[in-house]
Amino acid sequence: MNVFRKKPLQDRDIWQKLWGKRISENFLIELNNLLADKPLLQIRLEEVNRLCRRYKVSNISQFSRRLAGFYHSYLQYCLEDRKLSNDEIQELSHLKGLLGLSDRTVKEVHQSLATAIYGQELEKTMNDRKIDHKEQSFLEELCRNLYLPEELAQRIQEEKAGKKLTRKLLEIMGDKRITPEEERDFNLLSENLGFKPGLDERTEANFERYKMYWQVENGELPRIEPGIHLQVDERCHFQAEANWYETEKSTANLETGELQGRIRVPRGAFWRSDNENLSGLSASDWKAIDSGTMLLTNQRLIYMGKMGRMVILLENISGLIPYNDAVLIQRRKGKSPLVELSEEESDIFALMLNRLLSEEKE
């Protein structure tokens, strides 16, 4: 079977006939028909040169893009069985000479097509999310049959595996929670595909943080020895440096309640902002009361500041509103404080307080 099919020549218009001009497109059509007319190895270079003289083509390389298309079509035909035989290699070499193609052009055509074919076969082997020993041997043999450089094949495999792992990563990080099962699945996929993704610093930090979020909401809470006397059955779970703010304005109508699924984090720090924020109160409305250490236990908030100690029982907390670097704690009685923490600690504190409030209601 020949990949080339004969085509009719284009008709010349009256002016082309009058001036004896030939249509340049017909040169390529006749060249195509020559390739379609008989076996490739039987075509002589003189036959191509004769066409060039007839159409006054002084340099065949002016059609290099179209001629590379002829080579691409024949190479694609040869690679339908995903390998090149010795006869096909000989035919391709002869075709290269007939078309006057450079080594560089032929290399580009070959690598482009071989890369596409290798990528297609690689996708098939990755469909089951695993490349076993048999499949890896097949890919290595395919790489040799396609004359694809090993380093290029490795780069293609890493790119394909990287895309699958990226899709998996986006999937499990979508809800900002990573369960132990999701982490195991991700690591197993990475192992099965033979590729360990290099996560950037931000993604890796978020990965670890979302694992912590799940642990705080569902796992066993950490226990801390706070260095102060606790009540019977009281356990301390959180301790961090914090600043305490209060306002004379009412916070009773601010949006509050239990966290559902993820933390609401508005842009910019809450208390440092000079603009109106989601609470409806500006930064200037808050007055710094004290700085010190915040403790969170299963029964109460204990704030040990320079001015003294403040305690809020969990049963006296009606809800909370988390921000980038602070948590607004709504009290049933008394002033509702704004507790400023570092951004790394604020979200953990909010999640942990939310969980303890939920458990306290049960």
Radius of gyration: 36 Å
Low-confidence stretches: 256-279
Number of helices: 11
**End-to-end span in angstroms?**
78 Å
- In spatial order, strands of the major sheet run 4-3-2-1-7-6-5
* Number of structural units classed as domains: 3
**How would a textbook summarize the main sheet?**
7 strands, antiparallel
Share of β-strand residues = 5-15%
Indicate the overall shape. Answer: elongated
Mean pLDDT across the residues is 84
Task: Write down the CATH class of the largest domain.
Answer: Mainly Beta
How much helix is in the residues?
A: 40-55%
- How does the helix and strand content classify structurally? alpha+beta
Q: What does the secondary structure layout of this molecule look like, with pairings?
A:
Elements: H1 14-18, H2 24-37, H3 45-54, H4 64-78, H5 86-99, H6 103-126, H7 133-145, H8 150-173, H9 180-193, H10 201-218, E1 236-247, E2 286-297, E3 300-305, E4 308-313, E5 317-322, E6 326-331, E7 338-340, H11 343-361
Antiparallel strand pairs: 1-2, 1-7, 2-3, 3-4, 5-6, 6-7
Helix pairs in contact: 2-3, 4-5, 4-6, 6-7, 6-8, 8-9, 10-11
